[in-house]
Specification:
With 142 residues, the chain is α+β, with helices and mostly antiparallel strands. The chain is built from five helices and five strands, in the order H-E-H-E-E-H-H-E-E-H. A three-stranded mixed sheet has the order 1-2-3. It has a two-stranded antiparallel ribbon with strand order 4-5.
């Protein structure tokens, strides 16, 4: 069974981050520059939350607020379910579905490791299925 550790083996542990007092517009510019849909909010090395395009759309645009005046801490998602490197992909899918979230913060021994997205989970699941198909194909043709 594939788990979160397998995702990090493939994609690495690089985190794009901002501080809680960063302006929303600056976080959006960084997200656009890096072509990402979320950005980790850290204070020092402490995970504080996640700022997503969904947060921006729902908490800034729809409420008529200004992204140049708001700080990330005012609109970030800070009550996300936490997972570990040992969580199986199936468990991650269940959590994401039941909690209606697209991203999960990963911790190891209380230390923040990184974020996985629904795309990471789907990609890893597809890779695992392809590996299984290849193994079955090789078995049948050997």
């Amino acid at each position: 069974m594939k788990n979160v550790h397998d995702i990090f083996q493939r994609k690495g542990r690089q985190n794009i981050t901002v501080t809680p007092d960063a302006r929303v517009v600056d976080a959006l510019k960084l997200m656009a520059e890096k072509n990402i849909g979320s950005i980790v909010v850290l204070s020092g090395d402490q995970f504080k939350g996640l700022f997503t395009e969904r947060d921006y759309a729902r908490k800034v645009i729809l409420e008529g607020k200004s992204s140049t005046e708001l700080m990330v801490s005012e609109i970030m998602s800070d009550k996300l379910p936490e997972i570990s490197l040992e969580h199986r992909l199936e468990e991650c899918m269940e959590i994401m579905t039941s909690q209606n979230v697209r991203y999960l913060p990963v911790f190891e021994k209380g230390q923040f490791i990184g974020i996985i997205s629904i795309i990471d989970v789907v990609r890893e699941t597809i890779l695992a299925q392809k590996e299984t198909i290849d193994q079955l194909h090789n078995y049948l043709h050997s």
